Amino acid sequence: SYQAGKSRTWEDKMYLYPIPTGELQRNPQLLPQNPGW
Q1: Average pLDDT by stretches of 10, the chain with 37 residues
Q2: Residue 5 within a domain
């Protein structure tokens, strides 16, 4: 739960999810992985 007045941190990598390994193996054109993953 969120506590009022408490600051949160957000890492830039959280804007994009990692691409699943299986998807990268099927389609190498997806490389490189999303930043931070």
Answers
A1: 73 88 95 89
A2: no
Q: State both tokens at 33.
A: 């992985």
Residue 23: domain span: 12-36
Give the DSSP letter of residue 19: P
> What is the tally of structural domains in the chain?
1
pTM for this predicted structure: 0.56
First-to-last C-alpha distance (Å) of the chain: 26
Q: Output 11-19 pairs: Cβ under 8 A, ≥24 positions apart.
A: 11/36, 12/36, 13/37
Distance CA(21)–CA(29), nearest Å, equals 13
